[in-house]
């Protein structure tokens, strides 16, 4: 039987790419899959502003072998993907779908056949619709439903899967669902729900990790956080106070339970600052202590650049219209802090900073503040508009430029002692980019959505293939 120790012996560094179930699988109603919240939202909500959905997406469900083959040929030795909760439990709990189990068994087995290490995330935004109807992540019962779902996955796949993550980006998921309001259930500037979501998501994660450890499975498990590395504008009048408030807003409710096994020390203070009520489990200390992860997955694209609140009501600045909007990504929280906008830093077409230096500073900060954990960069990439040539080939030099800079800063952090064990480029292939639809492209492989979903590797695919080969040659 395969052992965890062999993973890092055979693959001293994990080089791969990543996807999420709803964004790439398609087959939204096939083989017993239950409805997900995103199925309902994209089919019926007027808030689906680009009127696109993941019904077919990249059709990974039927073409996974082709995609995994491309990873293997491209020297990728690992693949991060998520399981659709509603493929395993169509209603989120209760009856199990054997067809769903069979599908993920096929994917896992084919990865191993191709020497591509599977790295499995249990939840990546796609809540079963029935659980959404019962209150979603505001209903604390969901933490036990998630734990049972996780246990089922451990039982069915844990003999072969050695790398696990419980939840993808609990903070950013809570932010989009309750503050921006662009993800279902589309609450806007609802900070009460924002913080309660984070707490319940971390409670669910801790329960799942505790079960994993009780089962004495051979493997490692953690959670995936979106980088919230806070930097304070040097013109801020109260930089230390602003840092503390913003760091709590972006990071602390995730990183403290995940890496330290406890809630942040400043929790009671910040409850008063932000004015919310946190409904808490009676035995939370024991749950979080037992649910500390083995590593941290870090999805890293940008920093959080903040300053003092100056004036104005709470307002979110977000852009899901790409070049059709001039919005720069950020927020103003009345009376507390607001985003600052650095005119010296480039931004992508969706208003987000493109600042590869942050890879280094974020990794160093986590090492120094959170007991030097094992880290994997579970997402990092660059979204673009792209035009193929007459053969369908994309020369994505802009992506390669940014890609290389991020990797340079990651390796600099590693040279300075940060314990990074893997890197996953987002994304394996072009896919559905949540509210942004299909025009926003992240993939190493182009999907021709207009012509039978043909797969055509981009220039960046070949660049990454050669980069990996050179890395292993250099580190022999």
Explain this structure:
This protein is α/β, with parallel strands linked by helices and 476 residues long. It is 41% helix and 15% strand. Strand 12, helix 15 and strand 13 (420-426) form a beta-alpha-beta unit. Helix 14 (358-369) runs parallel beside helix 15 (397-415). The radius of gyration is 21 Å and the shape is globular. The mean pLDDT is 97.
* Total helical elements: 16
Helix content: 40-55%
**Number of distinct beta strands:** 15
What would you call the shape? Answer: globular
- Cα-to-Cα separation, first versus last residue: 27 Å
- Low-pLDDT segments: none
Main β-sheet, spatial strand arrangement: 1-2-3-4-5-7-12-13
**What about the largest sheet?**
8 strands, parallel, barrel
State the secondary-structure class.
alpha/beta
Cα radius of gyration in angstroms:
21 Å
Provide mean pLDDT, rounded.
97
Question: What fraction of residues sit in β-strands?
Answer: 15-25%
């Amino acid at each position: 039987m395969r052992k965890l120790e062999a993973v890092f012996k055979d693959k001293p560094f994990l080089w791969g790419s990543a996807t999420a179930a709803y964004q790439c699988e398609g087959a939204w109603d096939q083989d017993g899959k239950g409805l997900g919240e995103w199925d309902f939202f994209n089919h019926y909500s007027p808030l689906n502003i680009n009127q696109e959905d993941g019904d077919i997406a990249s059709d990974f469900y039927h073409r996974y072998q082709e995609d995994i083959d491309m990873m293997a040929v491209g020297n990728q030795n690992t693949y991060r993907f998520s399981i659709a909760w509603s493929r395993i439990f169509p209603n989120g709990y209760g009856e199990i779908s054997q067809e769903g189990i069979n599908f993920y068994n096929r994917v896992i087995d084919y990865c191993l056949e191709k020497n591509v290490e599977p790295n499995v995330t249990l939840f990546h935004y796609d809540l079963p619709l029935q659980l959404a109807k019962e209150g979603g992540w505001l209903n604390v019962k969901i933490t036990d439903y998630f734990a049972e779902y996780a246990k089922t996955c451990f039982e069915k796949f844990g003999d072969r899967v050695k790398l696990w993550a419980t939840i993808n980006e609990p903070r950013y998921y809570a932010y989009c669902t309750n503050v921006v309001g662009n993800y279902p259930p589309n609450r806007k500037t609802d900070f009460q729900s924002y913080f309660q979501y984070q707490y319940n998501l971390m409670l669910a994660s801790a329960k799942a990790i505790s079960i994993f450890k009780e089962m004495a499975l051979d493997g490692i498990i953690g959670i995936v956080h979106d980088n919230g590395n806070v930097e304070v504008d040097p013109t801020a009048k109260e930089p230390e106070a602003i840092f503390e408030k913003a760091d709590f807003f972006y990071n602390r409710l995730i990183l403290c339970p995940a890496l330290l096994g406890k809630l942040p020390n400043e929790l009671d203070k910040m409850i008063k600052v932000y004015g919310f009520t946190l409904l808490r489990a009676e035995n939370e200390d024991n749950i979080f202590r037992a649910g500390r992860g083995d590593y941290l997955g870090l999805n890293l694209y940008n920093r959080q650049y903040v300053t003092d609140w100056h004036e104005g009501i709470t307002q979110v600045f977000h852009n899901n219209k790409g070049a059709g909007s001039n919005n720069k990504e950020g927020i103003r929280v009345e009376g507390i802090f607001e985003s600052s906008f650095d005119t010296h830093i480039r931004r992508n077409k969706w208003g987000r900073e493109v600042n590869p230096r942050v890879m280094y500073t974020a990794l160093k900060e986590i090492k120094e503040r959170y007991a030097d954990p094992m880290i994997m960069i579970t997402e990092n990439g660059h979204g673009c508009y792209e035009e193929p040539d007459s053969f369908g080939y994309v020369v994505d030099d802009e992506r390669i430029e940014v890609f290389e800079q991020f990797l340079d800063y990651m390796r600099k952090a590693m040279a300075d002692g940060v314990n990074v064990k893997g890197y996953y480029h987002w994304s394996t292939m072009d896919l559905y980019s949540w509210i942004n639809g299909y025009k926003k492209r992240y993939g190493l492989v182009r999907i021709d959505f207009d012509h039978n979903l043909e797969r055509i590797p981009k220039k960046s695919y070949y660049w990454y293939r050669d980069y990996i080969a050179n890395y292993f040659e250099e580190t022999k």
